[in-house]
Amino acid sequence: SQDQVRAVAQYAREMHIDPVRHIEVLGGRIYLTGDFYQEKGAKYVRDGSIILHETEYIHADERLAAMAKGDGSEEAQKWAEGELSHRAMQRIKYAVPEGAKAAAVVRLTVRDGGTTFVGVNWCGGSTTKRDPVGEAEPTKTAETRAARRAWKRIVAVIPEFEQAVGHIEARATVVEDEIAQ
User: Which parts of 128-158 fold into alpha helices (H)?
Assistant: First the structure.
């Protein structure tokens, strides 16, 4: 409804966030996007407090399977066999459904203490109910959702990050209640 749109727009203005890049409203719930968390956490990556590892994709891939069967050089075949095995183990470890079109693992390591926080997500391939975004862009969606999960865990160990995002998350809950009425 127009009232719901206005409430979300007002929330975005109050929180100084971009409603197009930082907010998704799904089923009446406000989700802060992976871009939101990455932008808020960028200063910690720049100053070296957090190490952002390369995203790892662990979904099954027909091209990889074909390569492992010998469609390519011997070197490529060996790599593909190892990659297939690694991805399968990661899917088992993180309980990722085999039918997922895309699955991503995002890791963030806090330099002081060396703790690594992991975010995993998958989508597409009818692994979730009614997920038009995940079906339309499964790889991008899995990565951004995995990033959001990893960044949300950082809040527990970096108080300044919690101060930067905690009030925005809390206000989202209040707005959700308002738009549900």
Answer: 132-136, 138-154
Question: In one letter, which amino acid is 95?
Answer: A
Backbone angles phi, psi at 26, to 5 degrees: -130, 125
**126/40: higher pLDDT:** 40
Buried b (16+ CB within 10 A) or exposed e, 9-31: eebbeebebebeebbbbeeeebe
State the Rg of the chain over Cα. Answer: 19
- Asked if 154 and 107 count as a contact pair (C-beta separation under 8 A), the reply is no
Contact 130, 27 (CB under 8 A): no
pLDDT in tens, 130-163: 777 777 889 998 999 999 999 999 888 888 888 8
Q: Is the pLDDT of residue 125 over 70?
A: yes
Q: By the 8 A CB rule, do 77 and 63 touch?
A: no
Alpha-carbon distance of 33 to 112, in angstroms, equals 26
Gap between the Cα atoms of 165 and 54, Å rounded: 23
H-run or E-run covering 25 = strand 23-26
Its pTM stands at 0.84
